[in-house]
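Structure tokens please, single chain.
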Amino acid sequence: MKKIFFISLLAFTSCNSNKVLMNYMNQEMERNDSFKIVMYENKISANKTLNTLRGPLSNRITSGLPTSLILSDADFAILFEKYKNDTLTEKWNKSDFKNIDVEIIKSENLSSESNLKNKTIDVLKVKENWMYKNDLIYRGYRFFYMLSKPLFLNENLLVFYFSKSSGWTILSAEVVVMERVNKKWKVVERVETSEIY
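Here you go.
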């Protein structure tokens, strides 16, 4: 019985993951009156998403750190166990964003550990990225996004990391909690964070 449930949940999540995110992104575009978006290629990792909300809940509330008031400590334990081996870097493709005018750009990681250790920054690459961003903004791409894939607690509750910038300045970074009610996904919580990917 457990195997059947796991297989059906796996099929459910793979079929609905992108659909949920695309609905969310369509609403985001309507809110901002922007129909062109830029998506950073690398998906935010499951670890980053969950560590942003890391419990226990009581400690996070008293310390003033961002936390979810919807998800319990038991929910976090389930999510961490479920996604603990999810360590591969996944990438977004244009085909993930049907009906959305999206430009996929390489994720800059100029302050990565390897760069800091070697003290190397490719100045030409930085200049090229800067010029490319300016060109996108000039062509009407107003917002730059970073997303994780949805992490499903069960078939009715999921979380994902969402970050929006102007290309130069972070405008918002948050973990979004969504619940499926009457076959429709709706946002039930946004947990803002000062942590930047």
